[in-house]
Amino acid sequence: MGERAEHPHNVLIVSLDTVRADRLGVYGGRAETPTLSALAARGGRFSQAISNFPETCLSHQAMLTGVLPEVHGNVPAVGGSRYRGPNLAEIAAAEGYATAAFIGGVTLTDRACGFGRGFGHFDDRFPVDPADMRRPAADVTAAAARWLADRQGPWLAFVHYFDAHFPYTPQPPWDTRYDPDYDGDIDGTDAALRPYRDGGRVPSPRDLAHVLALYDGELSQLDGMLAPLLAAVDDDTIVVVTSDHGESFEHGYYFNHRAGLWDPVLRVPLIVAGPGVAPGVVVDSPVQLIDVAPTVLELAGLPRDARMQGRSQAPALRGDGAENGESPPAFSITDPWMPDPQWAARTSTHKVIVRTDGVLGYDLRRDPGEEHPLSEPPASLLRLRADYDAQVASLAAWQAPAPGPRPLGIEEQERLEALGYLAPAGTAPRPGAASGEGGADGNGQRRGPPTPPKR
Ligand SMILES: [Zn+2]
Predict the structure, then answer these.
(1) Separation of 319 CA from ligand 1 center, angstroms?
(2) Tens digits of per-residue pLDDT, 381-424?
């Protein structure tokens, strides 16, 4: 028997929904994150981890399958992925692992996202307060810890925390920690921020600073909630902490993520610890969330699936100086079945964002804040669109036919509307909803240019 059979490594994947990397203390940001800093010290972190999709469901589908979001089809409209290749949980289960997922937000339930595939225990039932659409972090941690306590033999667990997602309402002391002197009127509730999220109002610099302080407070509070979960696993466990996407507080796009591809939305934490990871290693070459699945498979000693489009970053985590050769560009898209789809390609030094109202190019070395678009977007990055389309098309044989839209229950409809994922009933329907798969067909064909996004 090989080493894997004798010493299978357990796997814990933690997703902190809506957490941008640069605000976190472990990434040099203001929000204190002692738990994540300790994890990064005994493991490694990626300084440029890029989300492939700025919404919860499809980003996580990409994260656990290692294939680009568009391959999965219009999952939010139809409730499940078209992709027939395996995800991490299915591969682990086939190797004898016990698998479980603990879901903290309504957009990642099996009903909303078809995310239960491969999980022997899928814990996605919880009472939802319409004010914040989440299951409190302490409840998520407790449920996961109960399951972990019963484990004999190898296991893989996925744990999802929705607390950093809008609204930004941290508890004391985190509600005032980063802006104790604010005496204005704005707060982090849906009622206060919805006019800005919808693009109708622009916050004053002082109010914006206050809302960012509330977001940072949520990040610190969440870091504290993680500590008991990470303490429940031993050092022989592969631990991954990441996020599905960030959040925007700039570029005229406030308190939201689904219609932006700037770095505040795309750059997420990615911290990995456990056997095979050099303590304290920092990997600066760009990686993508589709790299998570192949990386975990290699670190755990599980078989790789050849269909995965991400690359294992295990060599870089070993810290032997070989950062896995030349990094391929990271590709990101906004929902291609909604109006005004955007596409982005990013290297360690440059980025392009292709929008229906024009193309934005950035030199990230001189302009990391993406505030000064280049007069000429880098042509070499624009040419990558053909590579991206070919990658999506290459898995067509593994896509089931697009199912028709499923009727949403009233309750689910209301939840998704409240989160801004669906247009309210009675307004224009989602473009993809009527035909199931709408504008992009898996071959990269797009509809004609719609109107520019609201700013
Ligand atoms: Zn999310």
Answers:
(1) 30
(2) 999 999 999 999 999 999 998 777 766 665 666 666 666 655 55
C-alpha of residue 106 to centroid of ligand 1, in Å: 10
In a domain, 390, yes or no: yes
- 350 CA to middle of ligand 1, Å? 25
pTM, two decimals, is 0.89
Q: Ligand 1 mean position to 164 CA, how many Å?
A: 9
Rounded average pLDDT over 357-384? 96
Distance 165 CA to ligand 1 centre (A): 7
Tell me if 249 is assigned to some domain.
yes
Return the sign of the alpha-carbon dihedral for residues 42, 286, 295, 16: positive
Burial (CB count within 10 angstroms: exposed 0-12, middle 13-18, buried 19+), residue 333: buried
> What's the CA-to-centroid distance between 257 and ligand 1, angstroms?
8
> Strand 11-16 and strand 238-242: pairing?
parallel
Q: Is residue 443 part of a domain?
A: no
CA-based torsion, 269, 272, 278, 280: positive or negative: positive
Straight-line distance from the first to the last Cα atom of the chain, in angstroms, rounded to the nearest whole number = 59
Check which CATH number belongs to the domain holding 253 and give it.
3.40.720.10
- Give the domain range for residue 379: 332-435
CA of 107 to the centre of ligand 1 (A): 8
Amino acid at 159: V
Contact 89, 297 (CB under 8 A): no
Quote the ligand 1 centre to 237 CA distance (angstroms).
25
